[in-house]
Amino acid sequence: MSYTISEVNGVKIYNLSAGKTLPQFLEEAKKKNASLKYNQDFRKRIELIQDFDFPVACNQVEITNDEQYIIATGVYAPTIKIYETQELSMKCLRGVDSEIVKFTILDDDYTKIAFAESDRNIEFHAQYGKHYKTRIPKFPRDITYNPFTCDLLISASCNEIYRISLEEGQFLKSFESAASDINTLHFNKQLNFLTSGGNGGILEIWDYRQRAKATSRIVNNGQDITHINFDSSGLVMGVGSEKGLVRLYDIRYDAPLIEIKHHYKMPINTIKFHEKTRNVLSSNERVIKVNNKDNGKVYTSIEPNSGINRFTIVPNSGLILVAQEEPRIGTYFLPQLDNAPKWCNFLENITEELEETQSTLVYDEFKFLSYEDLETLKATNLLGTPMLKPHLHGYLMHMKLYNKLKTKADVFNIQEYQKNEVAKKYEESNKSRLIAEPKKVKVNQEFLQDLKEKSNKGKKDIDPFFSLVEDDRFKNMFEDEKFVVNKNDEAYIRAHPSEKGRQVRQKLKDAEVEEIEAENKQLLGMEEDKAKKYELKQKKIQQKQLKNDKFEKIKLIRKEKKNKETFEKKIQKKQKRESEQSLPKFGGNRSFNKKFNKKK
């Protein structure tokens, strides 16, 4: 198998199950009659485990506690495959009568396994193969195992949790749930209790010391619970819902610690905890999201090309095995998550030497939209399609599609309308407000105008409605010439140094503006000259083209006339020849024939 490298959020993801398999390479080489020696894809391939696939799809893949064996189930026909990690190959293959819904490993290795099948059978396998089969009343949905009491627990499409004592070899009294259907089970080995999740968001905990229900809660806003899992401490619980919502709870508190949203609105099928990096991995049918366990921040995400059924993490490593809706079992390696497993430590050396073009996500042509924006554009039906890419807390949509939807929806934004109306009313009120213009005064008219400009700029220390002209205290300042403000006076300049600087800056600015305008005029003149020259050149080219066209036309007419004359001459010659051949001939006397023809 070849490999591909992608990078999401700065984390490299090595897809070791991409490309063609060895049989496909051999078949292609046979068809083309070519050697695989020079095939670069074949030379770069990485086949982690031989025959790591199924004819159609894989339903579930798990690794044993001793990390020596990988067990996988798939279709069609319903098959169980057991792989040995030390040999990197398949150890054995077993066939079953019906499709396996889920299985659980009863021992540290592959010697004891229980399978829940779609025909209501519970099948037990030992090292040598099938050991025993029994039947339950309803169709199974999940299966788990209590190693302390040797009880096998099965949830089904009813409100009962079936219990089979493997020590006594008999059914025990079932646990009755408040939920109509129980979708998922998980046994907490650290605290010795069973957790079940069902319809209506009903989460229940069963205490095995009393064989009774300890507590019951409605979580995830009443959405159906589809998966439950605990971390290594047994205190933090991950709960997945039918609409792509994952919440982490501390069993000592009611409120969730963090909330992770999968924007595809699809059921959560797997939740796993990576204790070394303190990350939580959760998946729906389309994507595996990796988030920080403490704050919920996105670490990275994996998006296979086909649907995801379940996934598992090889313990103490960054290798993820994915059961997909395709023949090949997905294998993804994240070096930044953790090291490679001991049985395939060669991956460390390979990833260091890999130099391939990384696939990067380009969002320049995309528009970021929240779920509320999609509702406004009436585009919620596009969720789960390639037209929307989940990104952060929203989605990415191509700009062309966004513009079409926006034009079609003709959205009426009430908030923008209200803002515009308020702005219009404010402008109208400003227009209607009467502002007293300063009267013409004898002296200091310029000074009065400056005061007016400052008041219009909103200076707080000057009241725009206070008339200095009418005030008796300042009246003489605008009537008596003794109070004339001379801006060129040395005393005024010393008292107002910024005013002088402002004038100097204004002069410099005016000079710069004049210089720029002169340059622009010069450039415009040059451009006009160039434009005129270009126009003259184009006119000459057009005139020359017209002359050439006229000459070609005359030449063509003469040629046609000549051809017509030649054709007419040929017709005349042909007619003359035919008329001569139609005259009668008398024997071999040529002179007589000529005379007869002349008389004719």
TrEMBL record:
<feature type="region of interest" description="Disordered">
    <location>
        <begin position="565"/>
        <end position="600"/>
    </location>
</feature>
<dbReference type="InterPro" id="IPR001680">
    <property type="entry name" value="WD40_rpt"/>
</dbReference>
<feature type="domain" description="NUC153">
    <location>
        <begin position="471"/>
        <end position="499"/>
    </location>
</feature>
<keyword id="KW-0175">Coiled coil</keyword>
<dbReference type="GO" id="GO:0032040">
    <property type="term" value="C:small-subunit processome"/>
</dbReference>
<feature type="domain" description="Nucleolar protein 10-like second">
    <location>
        <begin position="362"/>
        <end position="409"/>
    </location>
</feature>
<dbReference type="InterPro" id="IPR012580">
    <property type="entry name" value="NUC153"/>
</dbReference>
<dbReference type="Pfam" id="PF08159">
    <property type="entry name" value="NUC153"/>
</dbReference>
<comment type="similarity">
    <text>Belongs to the WD repeat NOL10/ENP2 family.</text>
</comment>
<dbReference type="Pfam" id="PF23097">
    <property type="entry name" value="NOL10_2nd"/>
</dbReference>
<feature type="domain" description="Nucleolar protein 10-like N-terminal">
    <location>
        <begin position="5"/>
        <end position="360"/>
    </location>
</feature>
<dbReference type="Pfam" id="PF23098">
    <property type="entry name" value="Beta-prop_NOL10_N"/>
</dbReference>
<protein>
    <submittedName>
        <fullName>Nucleolar protein</fullName>
    </submittedName>
</protein>
<keyword id="KW-0539">Nucleus</keyword>
<keyword id="KW-0853">WD repeat</keyword>
<dbReference type="InterPro" id="IPR056551">
    <property type="entry name" value="Beta-prop_NOL10_N"/>
</dbReference>
<dbReference type="InterPro" id="IPR040382">
    <property type="entry name" value="NOL10/Enp2"/>
</dbReference>
<dbReference type="GO" id="GO:0030686">
    <property type="term" value="C:90S preribosome"/>
</dbReference>
<feature type="repeat" description="WD">
    <location>
        <begin position="175"/>
        <end position="216"/>
    </location>
</feature>
<keyword id="KW-0677">Repeat</keyword>
<dbReference type="InterPro" id="IPR036322">
    <property type="entry name" value="WD40_repeat_dom_sf"/>
</dbReference>
<dbReference type="InterPro" id="IPR056550">
    <property type="entry name" value="NOL10_2nd"/>
</dbReference>
<dbReference type="GO" id="GO:0000462">
    <property type="term" value="P:maturation of SSU-rRNA from tricistronic rRNA transcript (SSU-rRNA, 5.8S rRNA, LSU-rRNA)"/>
</dbReference>
<dbReference type="InterPro" id="IPR015943">
    <property type="entry name" value="WD40/YVTN_repeat-like_dom_sf"/>
</dbReference>
<feature type="coiled-coil region">
    <location>
        <begin position="501"/>
        <end position="529"/>
    </location>
</feature>
